[in-house]
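Sequence design from tokenized structure. All designs in this work follow the same two-part layout: the structure record, then the generated sequence. An example of the structure record is given first.
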């Protein structure tokens, strides 16, 4: 069937290249990428956007986004984004980071970027493990959850509790917009896209640091099917990491998207 305006269901956003994906089947990184690309296209800022990808599952993100991109050392994307935005304040600068990167080795970077109110946008993918390096326990691994480095399940008495990063960053005065959304069903995917749009609008209007945390699947390392992984996100992850708005400054609250 030849696509027409009447039967066209989906087409690749202009912000996407046609490169084949390296992500595992059922991984929702691809959905997150699509939402970011659609938002940047709809805002008309593709030609002035610079993305920053650190080490992690999204290390090859520059292959998929048809925008300028740079690679950062593990955990250092917020620092690199800070430098880019300060030198080129007219650009739209965003980082795309996983939980092992942002909430572990990069925790100091993200906390101080938010505290300084750096005018950047962060897309934070929370899949509760170090996805790229073999599924080890991450700061976001749930209590009792088995990983390759916690084969008996995360023991909070010896390994601590998961870090709720959005709640933490929302306490900082420099943060303008911090929310948590999920990618486990169509309703939540639509809500995630709206949040991503608002995060980029926060930056464009100079309202400070913005971050959208996205609960995401990792079927391979969780040893679940893609369908089971989506259910795990909705039933288990969202219970420990509640979806919601954690910081919306007065200026951001006035933006209509």
């Amino acid at each position: 069937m030849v696509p027409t305006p009447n039967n066209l269901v989906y087409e690749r956003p202009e912000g996407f290249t046609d490169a084949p994906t390296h992500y595992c089947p059922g991984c929702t990184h691809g959905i997150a990428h699509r939402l970011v690309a659609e938002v940047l296209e709809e805002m008309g800022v593709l030609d002035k956007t610079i993305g920053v990808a650190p080490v992690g599952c999204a290390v090859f993100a520059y292959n998929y986004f048809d925008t300028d991109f740079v690679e950062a050392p593990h955990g250092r994307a917020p620092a690199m984004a800070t430098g880019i935005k300060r030198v080129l304040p007219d650009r739209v600068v965003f980082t795309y980071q996983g939980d092992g990167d942002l909430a572990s080795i990069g925790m100091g970077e993200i906390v101080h970027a938010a505290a300084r109110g750096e005018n950047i946008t962060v897309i934070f993918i929370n899949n509760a493990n170090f996805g790229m390096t073999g599924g080890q326990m991450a700061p976001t691994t749930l209590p009792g959850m088995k990983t390759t480095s916690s084969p008996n399940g995360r023991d909070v008495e010896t390994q601590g509790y998961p870090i709720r990063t959005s709640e933490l960053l929302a306490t900082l005065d420099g943060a303008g917009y911090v929310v948590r959304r999920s990618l486990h069903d169509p309703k939540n995917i639509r809500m995630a896209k709206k949040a991503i749009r608002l995060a980029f609008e926060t930056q464009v209007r100079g309202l400070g640091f913005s971050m959208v945390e996205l609960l995401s699947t990792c079927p391979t390392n969780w040893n679940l099917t893609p369908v089971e992984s989506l259910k795990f996100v909705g039933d288990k992850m969202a219970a420990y990491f509640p979806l919601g708005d954690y910081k919306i400054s007065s200026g951001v609250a006035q933006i209509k998207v």
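The two ends are 34 Å apart (CA to CA). We note this feature because it recurs in several other targets discussed in the main text.
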